[in-house]
Design a protein that fits this description.
The chain is α/β, with parallel strands linked by helices. Helices cover 50% and strands 14% of the residues. The chain is built from ten helices and eight strands.
């Protein structure tokens, strides 16, 4: 298996990380050089608002053979930035990692060793203890828990992962605007392995993923990759029809056999109940239609402003 790995590509999406990019390169270079492993480091600047791009270009100028530098035309989000990087990889295996060094570069050998042991298409680096704020932990755990319930292909993965080149070739054939890499991975393979890795505190301070950003990501995942809510509409419609039938039968029986005047309250209850179900269903269908509209209009996954290969 080791003979299959002649070169490694490492893809890192970068956003407002000027303070740690040099450290990131130094650590990646140290680890992979100690393994005598030729590598390509793909740094994708997701339209940072600080000096990240200038620093990336400076690192590229010092290490032209090792660095591929990509500057995005605007912010497209983490997964889209990684997807852009995957299109420009030339390694036999591809490792993705965040730019804040929460998963340190010296844990990369664990991914490689696990890949050699298992021959899996994907190896995820999973931590048992995440060193981040309480709010971020709660938000992330809630995201993972609800994703597990709604996704048919939940992998329980992480941004720190190793991918086979053949799998990457399949992933990058997708052209829809919203990208969620772990969901796409699960479409193509069940050969997934896991290894425990260290998780350090972020070197750039607070997470760039706010609670609102995680909520947007969650809704994009649910509506972009999962028909679960459309199934829910069917069940809600059947349930509402049954409840409406029972309530209607109840009032009819009271009117016919007990000569009880049908009250205004009953009419209001059944009207608001069915109306609420209808409006909810229309809203859900509208979200799916909106995303279909975006796909049909072929909005780009990313747009590159500058690339230095």
């Amino acid at each position: 298996m080791t003979g299959e790995i002649k070169k490694i590509s490492v893809v890192v999406p970068v956003y407002n990380s000027a303070s740690v990019i040099n450290q990131l390169f130094t650590e990646v270079d140290k680890v992979l050089s100690s393994m005598n492993m030729p590598y390509q480091l793909v740094l994708v600047d997701d339209c940072s608002q600080d000096s990240s791009w200038e620093i990336i270009k400076e690192i590229k100028s010092r290490n032209p053979e090792k660095i591929t530098a990509i500057g995005m035309a605007r912010n497209f989000s983490q997964h889209n930035a990684i997807f852009c990087g995957l299109h420009h990889c030339n390694g036999d295996v591809i490792i993705t990692m965040d730019d804040d060094l929460q998963n340190p570069a010296d844990e990369i050998p664990k991914l490689i060793e696990r890949f050699i042991e298992t021959g899996a298409d994907v190896v995820y680096g999973i931590s048992t203890e995440y060193k981040r704020s309480l709010v971020r932990n709660v938000t992330s755990k809630g995201f993972k828990a609800t994703t597990k319930m709604t996704s048919e292909h939940y992998t329980g993965g992480s941004p720190f992962r190793l991918l086979k080149k053949n799998l990457v070739k399949k992933l990058i054939t997708h052209n829809q605007q919203f990208v969620f890499i772990d969901e796409l991975i699960a479409w193509y393979t069940k050969q997934i392995a896991y290894v425990t890795v260290r998780h350090d505190a972020s070197k750039v301070g607070e997470s760039r993923y706010s609670g609102a950003a995680l909520i947007r990501l969650y809704f994009n995942l649910v509506f972009g990759y999962n028909p679960m809510l459309l199934k829910l509409i069917t069940y809600l419609g059947l349930s509402a029809s049954f409840v409406s039938f029972v309530v209607g039968a109840y009032f009819i029986i009271k009117k016919i056999f007990f000569e009880v005047r049908i009250g205004f309250t009953g009419i209001v209850v059944i009207t608001t109940f069915t109306g609420g179900i209808i409006l909810l269903s229309i809203g859900i269908i509208g979200e799916y239609l909106r995303r279909m509209y975006i796909i049909l209009n072929e909005r780009p996954q990313y747009s590159i402003r500058e690339i230095l290969e």
